[in-house]
Amino acid sequence: MSETFQPVDAFLVPRFAGIATFMRLPLVPSPAGLDIALYGIPWDGGTTNRAGARHGPREVRSQSSLMRRVHHVSGIEPFTLANVADVGDVSVNPINLLDGLARIEKGVAAIVDAGALPLGVGGDHLTTLPVLRAVAKKRPVGLIHFDAHSDTNDTYFGDNPYTHGTPFRRGIEEGLIDPKRFVQIGLRGSIYETDDHAWARSQGIRLIYIEEFMERGVKAVMEEARAIAGTGPTYVTFDIDSIDPSMAPGTGTPEVGGFTTREAQQMIRLLEGLDIVGADVVEVAPPFDIGGMTALAGATMMFELLCVMARGVAARRA
User: Fold this and answer.
1) Are 286 and 59 within 8 A, CB to CB?
2) Model confidence at 318, in pLDDT bands (50, 70, 90)?
3) Nearest by Cα to 122 from 242, 251, 16, 248
4) CB 77 within 8 A of CB 70
5) Residues contacting 29, CB < 8 A, separation 6+
6) Whether the Cβ atoms of residue 108 and residue 36 lie closer than 8 Å to each other
7) Using CA atoms in the order 168, 34, 293, 48, what is the torsion angle rounded to 10 degrees?
8) How far is the C-alpha of 237 from the C-alpha of 299, rounded, in Å?
9) CA 219, 223, 225, 230 torsion: positive or negative?
10) Mean pLDDT confidence for 243-248
11) d(CA 3, CA 50)
12) How far apart are CA 1 and CA 196, in angstroms?
């Protein structure tokens, strides 16, 4: 393996200096030669209430300057195990939803076609749909989904099928997601109707509400999640509103009673060994943040995902 890109050394250049990139890695014009491509989706065209997630990638880049080279628990050195860089933001269209989705799909497809694993920051959760269109173009994927909301609604405001509350219904309908290998963790909050989640259950999705999570604990829940994902290709999507708003207030649809950041970190670490073909962190909305704490939580979850993915890259290469 050739020499890998490395972050700017904070012992030589202070964290507040220089151009902000994910993890202080080089900004490169192409994913060619990368194992993992970090990228942003500055788009929230699917938001139905509090817009602002379009600003997420920029703020997560800033807070990600606090990430260092080595994971303190696992000892993983992601920037040595895999060649990783920031490939910038995909093209977006803030005033045309369908064109916006097409642009996102095209941008992520370029990453996939180059042989790199995409690790992105949104953007609202609708952004995961075009990402899946790129990642699952040749076969459906399993999905591990951390969220307060199921995001399997059908339509909003009449017959509009595309909002941040509908991406996974569309993903199943389009054959991008294997619903038998799909688990949602952390669901909570009031719902519109008593049968809001009936469609999701009918497809075979495993729904784990926060109450079940609290009763069973991190290890038991993640053991089941791993079993559901199995050995096939799996995508991981982390909505920042899965974390309690006391620790991540900067999001469009906050729900009290969520994970702690520590629990979220533990869960992501337990993904190690799965065949992860891509991942994202979504719904960081800086206009509602306090002191950058939500963007920092997003950057930290991104680093946790990167470590798991980098070890996977190294294992496949061995």
Assistant:
1) yes
2) confident
3) 251
4) yes
5) 87, 88
6) no
7) -30
8) 14
9) positive
10) 98
11) 43
12) 49
Report CA dihedral (225, 272, 127, 54) to the nearest 10 degrees.
Answer: 120
The DSSP element (H or E) to which 131 belongs, if any, is helix 128-135
The residue among 128, 130, 135 whose CA lies nearest residue 105 is 130
For tokens 């097409």, the residue is 102
Phi (first) and psi of residue 49, to 5 degrees:
-140, -90
H or E stretch covering 199: helix 198-203
Chain centroid offset of residue 318 CA: 27
Q: What is the pTM of this model?
A: 0.97
Q: How many CA atoms lie within 13 A of 255 on its CB side?
A: 21
DSSP labels, 50-79: ---GGGHHHHHHHHGGG--SS-TTT---HH
Output b/e per residue, 19-43; b: 16+ Cβ within 10 A: ebbbbbbeebeebeebbbbbbbbbb
pLDDT average, residue stretch 68-77: 95
Superfamily of domain 22-317: Ureohydrolase domain (3.40.800.10)
